[in-house]
Amino acid sequence: MRRSKSAGGWLCVCVLMVVISAATASPARAQGSTDPNPGALTLTGGFDFANAYFFRGIFQDDTGVVMWPYGDLGFALHSGEGALKSVSVNIGTWNSLHTGDAGSNGPTGKLWYESDFYAGASFGFGTGTTVGVTYTAYTSPNQMFGTVKELSFKVAVDDSGLLGAAAVKPYALLAQELDGQADGGADEGTYLELGIGPGYSLSKVSMTVPVKVGLSLSGYYEGISGDETFGFLSVAGVVTVPFISAPTRLGSWNIHGGVEFLMLGDRNEAVFGDSSHVIGSIGIGLSY
Amino acid sequence: MLSMSRVRNNARMLAAAACTTLILASSPAWAQDAPAVDPNPGAVTITGSIDFLNQYMFRGLQQNNTGLVTWPAFDLGVTAYSGDGGLKSVGINFGTWNSLHSGNTGSDGPSGKMWYESDFYATLGFGFGKGTSFSTTYTAYNSPNSGFTTVKEFSFKFAVDDSGYLGKGAVKPYLVLAQEFGTDIGTGQADAGDNAGTYMEIGIAPGYYGISRASIAFPIKVGFSLNDYYELAGEDNKFGFFSVAGIVTVPLGGTSNFGSWNVHGGVEYQALGTTTEFYNGGDSSQVIGSFGIGFSY
Fold first, then answer.
1. What is the mean pLDDT of residues B34-50?
2. Fold annotation for B2-296
3. ipTM
4. Any idea where the domains of chain B sit in the sequence?
5. Which of A84, A174, A220, A242 is most buried, taking the most CB atoms under 10 A from its CB?
6. CA-CA distances (angstroms) from residue B119 to B13, B89, B185?
7. Which of B30, B149, B257 to probe by mutation at the A interface, max A CB count within 10 Å?
8. What are the sequence ranges of the domains in chain A?
9. Which of residues 101-130 of B touch A (CB under 8 A)?
10. pLDDT, tens digit, 9 for 90 and up, residues A43-57
11. Per-residue model confidence as pLDDT tens digits over A54-111
12. For domain A10-287, which architecture applies?
């Protein structure tokens, strides 16, 4: 029951890790090393291990090992100097494999708990502003939850140009469930996430401290006392170390790890049985 | 009923053949239209495709009999080594191949879910002189809508690209041996039989290029059970299927910053053996039409 819902708040952290790895590789490219992939397609991916999985504060599993293989293919359709700086399309998949109660040690005996497919478009404007729209289908190959289809919109600002090292990179994500529900409730929900992603880069190591809050605008965190607005607060620290400083013919690879502290709202606390949880993760990332 | 619950692999081969054909077929166009700058000179190659069919047969075993079948596929290739010695190349490939069904084994079936099959595979390949290659592949055939139980398989492929000798008369012969493992009675097997099966496939893939911008290939293959691959009522029938197909590939322009894209379509005729005929509703043959889009970057 408690895992009768779906997918991935940690997706944001994973994407962040990949973005970080790509970012750390950029200076090396700029320094003149040969770019193995100057074309318009970009591949990012990774494989992470974690001790627990919460999706937007909704408990999924904290037994056994959780593995997250993911991949993203990006198409740079446009880049220019006008008001519209860039247009890109991304398609990708994010997966969660569980050895514990939600996976191979659970009622189905199958490891593959979650498989998400997404497709999105994003538009880059001046002053580091990006607007994106994404369709996501959250599915459970081992039938542990019903498919959830969602349309989300994201506005993000890269304020590095204005604030330099003090940039906080704020964003807002608005998601509307179209069919199926993450909370297994009565109505499709509307979700709002507000976050920042300040980061610091040292010589060969970068660190980010993503902070985010998940809120229900309508029916996203339904519980026995109705819809609760506050879903979770998350603070994490993620360290990324490139394998080598310059991209190779195999692209840029990194190892990354982090710790996330989750504080849950009443509804999510009631489902999980505790008001907070600490999640540790480590993984390998690729940007090509 | 059994044919539904035993679902899996066959389509992957057809898709692989189609993809290979596409890639091969588009090579001349690459050469003709190569941009000044290679969009991807690195050691990672990305290929993908989406195909639409009227029927999915896995190595002769019927997987659906109504509705539309859609095959999205994606492959990531890593060139680990290339040289001029006896060992010419070493490559690693990872990929996923999927089958989405609108018919009786998909969204119109008992599960109500479209995603019938999702395969993950990893391949280690070695290229030698004279166009010879050898590869070994691990494949996990999964069914997200529980249309069949997961099948795990190791396969080995030996192939010869005889274009260097025969030019346009090349037939590109190959041999595949596949072994199922981790099975139980009725579980983890393509035929849902009693024992893990050993499969052998022999094929050729002659092709013709330079027909305007299009190319055409005629893959022919025969699938056999070496041991318990096509079980039926306790008996292993050795002959699985014979397949002959025609596939036309048309490049969409030349190579651009987005790589090389093409549209392709084909018709395949399959003559079935005793077991595969049984699971095909008693019909001894099947005609499959397909159409799709592919890219290589």
1. 86
2. Porin (2.40.160)
3. 0.81
4. 2-296
5. A220
6. 12, 26, 21
7. B257
8. 10-287
9. 113, 115, 118
10. 999 999 999 999 999
11. 999 999 999 999 999 999 999 999 999 999 999 999 999 999 999 999 999 999 999 9
12. Beta Barrel (2.40)
